[in-house]
Amino acid sequence: QVQLVESGGGLVQTGGSLRLSCGASGTASSSNVFSANTAKWFRQAPGKQREWVALMTPHGPTNYRESVRGRFTISADSTSNTMYLQMDSLKPEDTAVYYCNVEIHMKAYWGPGTQVSVSS
């Protein structure tokens, strides 16, 4: 089992920045969770479905949904077993609960989420 916990959310003004973190813990295999598996960030705004925001693959290529491309950056630090989402030029429409996700052997693991609120 792998446990994921997000942190770094908060309230910022339009144009501000936040860096979300996702820490992994659990079994010994979690030491390579983010470098060995496809990992993603999702978000869910009130009254809307959860949507994919960014992903990174084991060999490095990343991808972003169109609305955040150029503003958000996904990365990971295998030594600390942590994944990040750097969010710049934030907009009110980025307001949501943000979740990290990793798939290991076809099983999906999720964190409990962290709230990001962007005021206009």
Overview of the molecule:
The protein is mainly beta and 120 residues long. It contains one helix and eleven strands; from the N terminus they run βββαββββββββ. The strands form two sheets. Strands 2, 4, 5, 6, 9, 10 and 11 form a seven-stranded mixed sheet that branches. Strands 1-3-8-7 form a four-stranded antiparallel sheet. Strand 5 (51-56) and strand 6 form a beta hairpin. The longest helix has 4 residues, at 33-36. The chain is globular. The mean pLDDT is 93.
Give the C-alpha Rg.
14 Å
Q: Overall 3D geometry?
A: globular
> Quick one: biggest sheet?
7 strands, mixed
Total beta strands: 11
Q: What's the SSE pattern?
A: EEEHEEEEEEEE
Residues in β-strands, percent:
over 45%
Helix content: under 10%
Look at the helices and sheets and give the structural class: mainly beta
> If helices are DSSP runs of H or I spanning 4 or more residues, what is the number of helices?
1
CA-CA gap between termini: 40 Å
Unreliable stretches covering 5 or more consecutive residues: none
Mean pLDDT: 93
Provide a short characterization of the protein structure:
This protein is mainly beta. The protein has one helix spanning about 35, and strands at about 1-5, 10-15, 20-25, 40-45, 50-55, 60-65, 70-75, 80-85, 95-105, 105-110, 115-120.
